């Protein structure tokens, strides 16, 4: 897609070969525009060395290119006012020399218009590199390096090259300019469309996973029973005594008998209150989750509609019409932001406790110093290298035995002892961890720790790994 040697030769024939350099412009890292005044006209020579799109032609004005960057700023400060002496391609090599005189010295811009690795290099009369559009130290294209001037030539059979059919030989400069304008725009459109399709697909998958997690977070099986149990216990409070571990009562509606578990350490009123509190807690949480699920479903519908529109769009203008809607999702920091990745893996445990599992010592240090709070729980396999597992505390809720078992299972699974059938895991509150002064990252010593003997249960583990955030 870069210009071939014959096309470059024909373009150079059109370019004035003398004049006074007025100014340089650099719209981007691959483009240089040289403005020089010749006898008959004000000229703007456009050179672009982007891989696979190397090209050179004249443009009418620089209204859309009035941008300065490192290379053009340097040139304007040091080489404005130079006198153009000659512009030529050496031996059909796609190496173009732009020779000019500044003060009493001769300099050359070398435009290397190869398919890949193109460059614009400024050298002095001793072939020392003064500056480059692209600094490429691996090629010794760097200030003060020597540029190896040799007899550049195209060793291929030149009869294979000609002006391509998409260019108008009678208006070569403008046809080349329009060709690359359309080509770049179309390439830009394709890349942007592919990016948006990927973005919307990732967003949609993110919200599908979030919806799945929400559906798993509320256990509705006992939801109505908690209130029923509370009502039955209240109506039969005279049958209750402290020390009872269960009671069997008849339902008001259908004479069905229920065995209701009780806490032997609690009074009848405390047992009743526990069931009502469980009911209220799940009811309130369910209301919040139902609202969030409704919002997620709406978002997913919008994403699916946008994805359908993007798939069917044929040009950049139509894509621009819906970019504003896509940008809303693009700026959503919860996904598609690799630069701000949250430390650790997150899992949902029993009773909606969240476990954060470190991947390495550096992450463990960040989790323990910046994320974990004093009342959070800490788990680690005993006497073996492994991940730190921090379970976030829920105010007013006690960590359940099932959640402790799950956290211990994660500590075992993400450790060197993962192949063992069982192991000891110790846990304590984060506030009881001691970090030695000047110790390595992630090293802590627990105090007031308790021990849990955990057996590796693949069925429990697999269910747990599926509940990863």
Give descriptors for this structure:
ibrinogen binding protein from staphylococcus aureus fold; 469 residues; six-stranded antiparallel beta sheet; single chain; alpha+beta; 3 domains; nine-stranded antiparallel beta sheet; 19 strands
Rg is 36 Å
Structural class: alpha+beta
Q: What about the largest sheet? A: 9 strands, antiparallel
CATH class of the largest domain: Mainly Beta
Strand % is 15-25%
Mean pLDDT: 88
- CATH fold node name of the largest domain: ibrinogen binding protein from staphylococcus aureus fold
- The residue fraction in helices comes out at 25-40%
Identify the overall geometry: elongated
pLDDT < 50 runs, ≥5 residues? 333-340
